[in-house]
Amino acid sequence: MSDEEFDYNIQELLDQVRPEEETGHVEYKRRLDNLTETRKITLTNQLERRLHQGFGECIYYLGIDDDGIPFGLTKLELQNSQKNLSEIAHNLGCTLTTLEIKALDPKIVESRQEEKNDIMQASGGNLVATFLIRKRLSHLSDVKICMMGNVDSSKSTTLGVLLTGIRDNGRGSARKHILTHKHESETGQTSSVSSRIIGFKDDGTCVNEKYLQHRMSWTKILEESCKIISFSDLCGHRKYLCTTIRGLGIDPDYVILLIDVQRGIQPMTIEHLELCNYYNIPVIILVTKIDLCQEKSVFNKLVVDIKRLCRDHGNYRIKPLFTPKQLMGVIEDFLGPNDSKISKIPFIPLIPISCVQLKNIDLLYSFLNLLPVRNKYDRKGPARFRVHTDYLVPQVGTIAYGLVESGFFEKGQKVLLGPTSTGEYLSTVIKSIHYKRTSVLAAYAGQEICFCLRNIKRAEVRRAMVILPNTGEKLAISRVHVNLMIRRTNRSTITNKYHPYVYIGTIGASVQSFTILDAVERLQAGYSYLVELKLLRPYYIQIGDRVIIKEAVVNGTGQVTEIFRE
To answer: What is the pLDDT of residues 274-316, one digit of tens each?
Structure first.
């Protein structure tokens, strides 16, 4: 290691590192040289635990104590510590990738050590290193991200550039790899939810660089990847807002919100940010088309507007990411000390990009590579699959596409599909299972899956149905009690004659009757009420499911507190 590898001007690490937590995918180590065999066994077990909590990947800091205070290492200590950590990782079948090495001001490191009375053990070093350890599991680490933003904010174009690595021509040439229907290509407006994937190898390099040259299939991407990012390109036009809300039913780990630098913040930008706030989904903001921004003051004004917007809608704080040197600091602030908890004061990374000049696209790749899986699924619980859409493939049969919410399913398993409009469940068999366009033998919780169902007509499959094992609890609920918080309304008040369209989890349903159970006649914004909803048809609904009312003049959120069986 030479002096050119170190950045002696960066001292942000002193403020960005928080105390280590017992859970999560982040581990701090003062030093790992001069290890005994007993110590190596302990460290191996600890690394296995961190890998398990990080779904096959974790981040190690060397030169930092558990309380987050930099201890500092010399070059020789860092070399020996890195060698031992690499050996431990190799024994577990993992790869070790250096993310960054920082050299801090020795005087500041010494003062920090004096604060904790540890100066006698100090080695005089001032180096701190960060490493990514990644292991290929039997099931890939799959991070789900939804692309949201106003119409013409370059959602599909940005995704096309990420997918292929080829620059756009300024007129949307990159989005042809994303759009599904002919009318979408003609109008430039996405009206459906399309899915694409990019893969990363164990060393963090993106496998999609060869996508166009070698015409890589999804199966090939899965074979070469250790981690994949599953993107869902959602609609931006207001008339497709229902489709956008249903697209969030895949339970994404993160949402990328795109804002055109020329148009700035639009009404749909606010709607999408509010949806992320309702669903409690971490947000990443991309400011697009910065190649068209000739004046720096225009961009600075937009950043100020975004800060105000995020403060007013969710009390978020903006964390700009302009250079690779800022990457680890932004990741730390965005994720908090581990992947199981987002920071108590939520941060939103802001990255300016250009699809024409490919500006900051490599930085965006690096950022995506470090994002961990956020949602935790119960793979040992009762199996449940939620249908998002259905297809009819000639000479194959009826296909149900959706998310495995818990448990697992196997090929050839006998299952139940329902509830139907009469509350019944249909018996069927899973003929085949496809994950990311690849045939597999089993489907696990958290995966987006296609099931081919035997002896089921397409007309019998409806969105929001569930697939359960034969022993599953067959719920058919059409009447629920909801603790509803009215967040926004117009001057007219809400009474018992209100008939909204509601979203309960991934379900979109019309309300047949709306009854206020509290001792009030009208609902007003800013208050919570207990209401009863009677739906037009039965659905699989559980206590605790999130309820959202999203209409032109009414916004409300709540949770199901009680269900009534038919």
So the answer is: 899 888 899 999 999 999 988 889 999 999 999 999 998 888 8
DSSP H or E segment with residue 161? helix 155-164
* 158 in the same domain as 115: no
Print the domain residue range for 165.
141-369
Assess if residue 191 is contained within a domain.
Answer: yes
The structure tokens 């690595």 sit at: 165
Asked if the structure places residue 374 within a domain, the reply is: no
Bin 207: left if φ > 0, else alpha if -120 < ψ < 50, else beta: alpha
Say if residues 559 and 471 touch (Cβ distance below 8 Å).
no
Distance of CA 410 to the CA centre of its chain: 26
Q: How many helices (H) and strands (E) does the chain have?
A: 12, 26
* 127-135, strands of its sheet edge to edge: 26-29, 57-62, 127-135, 94-103
Same domain, 254 and 320: yes
Best CA proximity match to 258, nearest among 335, 372, 351: 351
* The two three-digit tokens of residue 405, written as one number: 């919410």
Reported as a single tens digit per residue, the pLDDT across 124-156 is 678 889 999 998 766 678 999 999 999 889 988
Residues 146 and 20 in one domain: no
| Residue at 188 is within a domain | yes
Please name the residues in contact with 546: beta carbons below 8 A apart, sequence gap of 6 or more: 278, 279, 504, 505, 557, 558, 559
Q: Report phi then psi at 565, rounded to 5.
A: -75, 150
- Do 453 and 498 belong to one domain? no
Task: Identify the bridge partners of residue 104 per DSSP, sorted by sequence position.
Answer: none
Q: What percent of the chain has pLDDT over 70?
A: 87
At residue 506, the pLDDT reads 82
How many domains does the chain divide into?
4
